[in-house]
Amino acid sequence: MVKIMEKAYGYCRVSGAGQIDGNGFDRQEEEIKKFASTHKIEIVQIFKEQVSGCKDEEQREVFQQMIAEILRNGVRTIIVEGLDRLAREYRIQEQLLIYLASKGIALIDCRTGEDVTDAITADPMKRALVQIQAVFSELEKNLLVKKLRLARESKRKITGNCEGRKSWNDSPDKRDLIIETIKILRKKPRGRKRMTFVKVAEELNRMASDDTKYSALTGAEWNGPMIQNFIQRYMVDPI
Predict the structure, then answer these.
(1) Which of 5, 21, 132, 167 sits at 20 to 30 Å (Cα–Cα) from 112?
(2) How many other C-beta atoms are found inside a 10 Å radius of the C-beta of residue 103?
(3) Nearest-CA neighbor of 66 among 80, 54, 81, 52?
(4) Are the beta carbons of 50 and 225 closer than 8 angstroms?
(5) Which of 1-5, 42-46, 207-211, 235-239 comes out lowest in average pLDDT?
(6) Tell me, what's the pLDDT at 204?
(7) Is the pTM of this model over 0.70?
(8) What's the CA gap between 3 and 114, in Å, rounded?
(9) Burial (Cβ within 10 Å: 0-12, 13-18, ≥19) of residue 18
């Protein structure tokens, strides 16, 4: 069962922009808050990150920001909707859990109510069950990838093409404008901190309200994870 605690952070993760535009973050945040309310836990902050579940802690900027915040203020608990929101790939999931355990940070799974970091370090049987969960999560991801690939191949045979989501590379002028704008906004002023992804998103949304050339490709509002993903994909020298 979950340990008694007073405060915790929430961590939400989605893999792609489609989940951001849908209800990926909203659903996870709702489940975390519901769990916290039931167990009388105060959620200090919920961190949201768009990053592949195959990335480790060094490749997760928002995750690292959360860890830095945790180590600063003494709160030692993270709540996730489920272990697959930490990572879907077993190897990465176990690596992240060991990383958290090494820093004395508890990770609580909403679905099971369990302190997973404690389980993997204290009880061999529970550790095995956590590992089994991760294996099935990875299997589910691989089956979904295969299903989507087969669907695309089937459509291609019927229609001769299979158009996916429009890419920024299909609109190079707009892409390059956004790149230059982000560079300007993210340039570190002397003696001050660099503008965060969230602040960059807010500024782009303000600019887009006056000129649509600054809008996101899907027409949705910019947010921090979208900016982070854009930088990682399209900027030669990420900032």
Answers:
(1) 21
(2) 11
(3) 80
(4) yes
(5) 1-5
(6) 92
(7) no
(8) 8
(9) exposed
Last residue of a domain, one of 134, 153, 179: 134
Contact 226, 201 (CB under 8 A): yes
Q: Which two tokens stand for residue 210?
A: 């006056």
Rounded to an integer, what distance in angstroms lies between the CA atom of residue 82 and that of residue 67? 18
Tell the burial category of 119 from Cβ atoms under 10 Å away from its Cβ (0-12, 13-18, 19+): buried
Domain that holds residue 75: 7-134
**Which CATH number do you get for residue 71?**
3.40.50.1390
Residue 13's region, left for phi above 0, alpha for psi from -120 to 50, else beta, is: beta
Q: Are residues 55 and 101 in the same domain?
A: yes
Give 6's pLDDT tier (boundaries 50, 70, 90).
confident
DSSP state of 212: G
Work out the end-to-end distance of the chain between its first and last CA atoms, rounded to an integer number of angstroms: 42
What's the pLDDT at 5? 58
List, for residues 136-168, the tens digit of each pLDDT value.
555 565 666 667 677 767 766 666 555 555 678
Is the pLDDT higher at 173 or at 42? 42
- Domain limit, last residue, from 73, 108, 134: 134
* Residue 124 lies inside a defined structural domain of this protein: yes
